[in-house]
UniProtKB/TrEMBL annotation:
It is a multi-pass membrane protein. GO terms for cellular component: membrane. It comes from Clytia hemisphaerica. Residues 104-519 form the Major facilitator superfamily (MFS) profile domain. Keywords: Membrane, Transmembrane, Transmembrane helix. Pfam families: Sugar_tr. The chain crosses the membrane at residues 69-93, 150-170, 182-200, 206-227, 239-261, 267-286, 348-365, 377-395, 407-425, 431-454, 497-514. It is found in: Membrane. PANTHER family: SOLUTE CARRIER FAMILY 22 MEMBER. This is Major facilitator superfamily (MFS) profile domain-containing protein.
C-alpha cells in the first residue's frame, strides 16, 4: 500500500512510501527515498539567492492587486473626516444677512442687507440684528462683524497655516519613525481637536484648535498618499493615488449637502468629526511602507508584508528571493537635503512654486464660488463635482503623455480660463460659472498629477521630507486663498481671478523644464538618481 508525504509544502517535493498490506508498524521511508530527499535539500540550498529591490518584489506579489485595492478603500474611509475639516469653515463661517431692529431711531433702512453693506459699522450694535439665529455660524455665535471680519478669513487660513508648519514636522516624523505611526498620531490629534473646537466659548481659542487640526492633517492626507504610492507599481500609481482624490471630491459634495440640511455649525462640526471613530478599527489593516522598512534595514518586516500582499493577491514569493539592502544611507533625513545639489534645489524650488499656485487656485476657486453668481450651495457642489471627470483625465493623461506634460499644460489652461472669468461681467453668471468650473477641473488635473510626479521625482529617504516641504508651499497658497477670494475683491472685483490666472500661467511654464518620471525606476536614495532631462525635449 502506498502513501504520500509532503515536506515543506511548496519548496520541497512529495515522497511516496510503500508498505505491505500486512505491515502494522510505523511508516518509514526507504534508504533510496531518504537519499533523494537529502539531495533535493542540498540542491535547494545551493541555489543562488536572488536579491531584488521593492519594485522587483511588487512585480512578484502583484503591483495593484486585491490587497492594494482594499488598502486604497480603507485609506479613503480614513481620509473622510480629514477632508470634511479642510473646507468646513466655508459653511461654518457664513455671514448671514442683517436688518435694522424694529422701532430703531438710528437704523432706518428697510429690507435685508448683505455683509458687504457696511452701514451697520457706523451705528450702535443694538440697532441691527442678524437674519439667522445664533447657532447658524461662528459669525452669529461670536458676533463677528465689521472690523472683526478678519477673524472669519482667519478661521480658514489658520488651518492652512497649521498645515504649513505641521507638514515639515509630519514629513520628518514619517521619514524617521514610519508612515503608519505618523498616520495614527494624526488621526488621534485631529479627532481630539475637532471634538473640542465646537464647545469653546472664545473665538481665539477656537482659532487655536483650528491650527492644531491643520498641523496634523498632513498625516492623514499626504502621508497616506505616500504610503499607497510606495506599495504599488509605476503603472498603477496614478490610479491608486487618484482613487483617494475621487473620494475627496465625493466627500466635499456630501459636505455641501450636509451644510444645506444642517444650518447649525456646531452640529455640522460634530457630524463631520464622528467618522473618525470608524477609522480606528480599520487602521489595523494598514501596513508600514515596505520602502521605508527596506531603507531602515528592517528586511524581515518588509518580507512579512510582502508575504501578506502575496497571500491576498493569490501570488507566491520565490523562496530564493531576498530584499536587497539600500546602500548609502548613513544619516537621518533633514530639510536641507532638498537643496543639497543644484539639480535638487531647482526641482524643489519649481515644484514648491507649482504646489503653492495649485493650492491657491484650487481652494481659491472653491471659496470664490459664491462670487460666480447663483446659489451658494449649488455652486459649491457643482465646482466640486467637476473634479470627478478631472480625476479620470488625470489618470489617462499622466500615463499617456507623462507627469510633466500633463501638469504643465493643465496649469497653463487653468490659468487662461481663470483669466477669462475675471473679465466676464457679473450679468453673465452662466458663463462665469461655466469657465470657473472648467478652470477648477483643469487645476484639479494638475493637483492630482503633481502629487504622483512629486512622489516619483524624490528618492525614498527624503520623500516624506520633500512632500512635507511641498505641503508647506501648497498651504501658503491655500492660506492666501480666503484673502484673495474674499478680501482682495474689495479693491477690484476682477483681482481674485486675475491673480490666480496669471500665477497659473507662470507655474505651468516653470514646470515644463523639470524631468519626466513616467516609466522610471523608483529612486530609493540620491545615489539612485540617474541623468535627468531638465529641458523641454519632449515638447520639441
Amino acid at each position: 500500500m502506498c502513501s504520500w508525504f509532503g515536506f515543506c509544502g511548496s519548496c520541497k517535493p512529495n515522497f511516496k512510501s510503500c508498505r505491505s498490506r500486512k505491515s502494522t508498524g510505523d511508516l518509514t521511508m526507504s534508504s533510496t527515498e531518504s537519499l533523494a530527499m537529502e539531495e533535493t535539500e542540498k540542491s535547494n540550498s545551493l541555489q543562488p539567492i536572488e536579491r531584488l529591490n521593492v519594485d522587483g518584489f511588487l512585480r512578484m506579489v502583484g503591483g495593484f492587486g486585491k490587497f492594494q485595492i482594499i488598502l486604497d478603500i480603507v485609506c479613503c474611509i480614513i481620509m473622510c473626516p480629514f477632508t470634511f475639516h479642510v473646507l468646513i469653515m466655508y459653511f461654518a463661517a457664513l455671514q448671514p444677512e442683517w436688518k435694522c431692529v424694529e422701532n430703531s431711531t438710528v437704523c432706518l433702512l428697510n429690507g435685508t442687507f448683505t455683509s458687504e453693506n457696511d452701514f451697520r459699522c457706523q451705528i450702535p450694535r443694538s440697532e441691527w440684528e442678524y437674519m439667522k439665529p445664533r447657532e447658524y455660524s461662528i459669525v452669529t455665535e461670536f458676533d463677528i462683524y465689521c472690523d472683526r471680519d478678519w477673524m472669519i478669513y482667519m478661521t480658514t487660513s489658520i488651518l492652512f497655516i497649521g498645515w504649513m508648519f505641521g507638514a515639515i514636522f509630519i514629513g520628518w516624523l514619517a521619514d524617521n519613525y514610519g508612515r503608519r505611526k505618523t498616520m495614527l498620531l494624526s488621526i488621534v490629534m485631529v479627532l481630539t481637536a475637532s471634538l473640542i473646537a465646537p464647545f469653546v466659548n472664545n473665538i481665539y481659542v477656537f482659532i487655536i484648535f483650528r491650527f492644531i487640526v491643520g498641523f496634523f492633517i498632513p498625516g492623514g492626507g499626504v502621508i497616506m498618499f505616500v504610503l499607497i504610492s510606495e506599495i504599488v507599481n509605476d503603472k498603477y500609481r496614478p490610479l491608486a493615488g487618484i482613487i483617494l482624490w475621487v473620494f475627496f471630491t465625493l466627500i466635499l459634495c456630501v459636505m455641501g449637502l450636509l451644510a444645506y440640511l444642517i444650518p447649525k455649525w456646531k452640529i455640522l462640526f460634530i457630524i463631520c468629526t464622528a467618522p473618525f471613530f470608524a477609522t480606528l478599527p480599520l487602521f489595523k489593516f494598514i501596513p508600514e511602507s515596505v520602502r521605508w522598512l527596506r531603507l531602515k534595514g528592517k528586511i524581515e518586516e518588509a518580507l512579512e508584508i510582502f508575504q501578506r500582499i502575496a497571500d491576498w493577491n493569490g501570488r507566491k514569493l520565490n523562496p530564493n528571493a531576498s530584499l536587497s539592502m539600500v546602500q548609502g544611507v548613513e544619516h537621518s533625513s533633514n530639510p536641507l537635503d532638498l537643496f543639497k545639489t543644484k539639480r535638487m534645489a531647482i526641482k524643489t524650488l519649481i515644484q514648491g512654486f507649482a504646489w503653492m499656485v495649485n493650492g491657491m487656485v484650487y481652494y481659491g476657486i472653491s471659496l470664490a464660488s459664491d462670487d460666480l453668481g447663483g446659489s451658494l450651495y449649488l455652486n459649491y457642489v457643482l465646482v466640486s463635482l467637476i473634479e470627478l471627470p478631472a480625476h479620470v483625465f488625470a489618470i489617462d493623461f499622466s500615463n499617456r503623455f507623462g507627469r510633466r506634460k500633463t501638469t504643465s499644460i493643465s496649469m497653463i489652461l487653468a490659468g487662461i480660463l481663470t483669466l477669462v472669468v475675471a473679465f466676464i461681467p457679473k450679468s453673465h453668471n452662466e458663463f462665469r460659472v461655466m469657465f470657473g468650473m472648467l478652470g477648477k477641473m483643469l487645476i484639479t488635473v494638475s493637483f492630482d498629477v503633481i502629487y504622483t510626479w512629486s512622489v516619483e521625482i524624490y528618492p525614498t529617504n527624503i520623500r516624506s521630507e520633500a512632500m512635507g516641504f511641498l505641503q508647506i508651499t501648497s498651504r501658503i497658497g491655500a492660506a492666501s486663498a480666503p484673502w484673495i477670494a474674499k478680501a482682495v475683491k474689495v479693491i477690484h472685483n476682477t483681482l481674485p481671478f486675475l491673480i490666480m490666472g496669471v500665477l497659473g500661467l507662470l507655474a505651468g511654464i516653470a514646470c515644463s523644464i523639470l524631468p519626466e518620471t513616467k516609466g522610471q525606476e523608483t529612486q530609493e536614495t540620491e545615489n539612485d538618481v540617474t541623468e535627468e532631462v531638465f529641458f523641454m525635449d519632449e515638447f520639441k
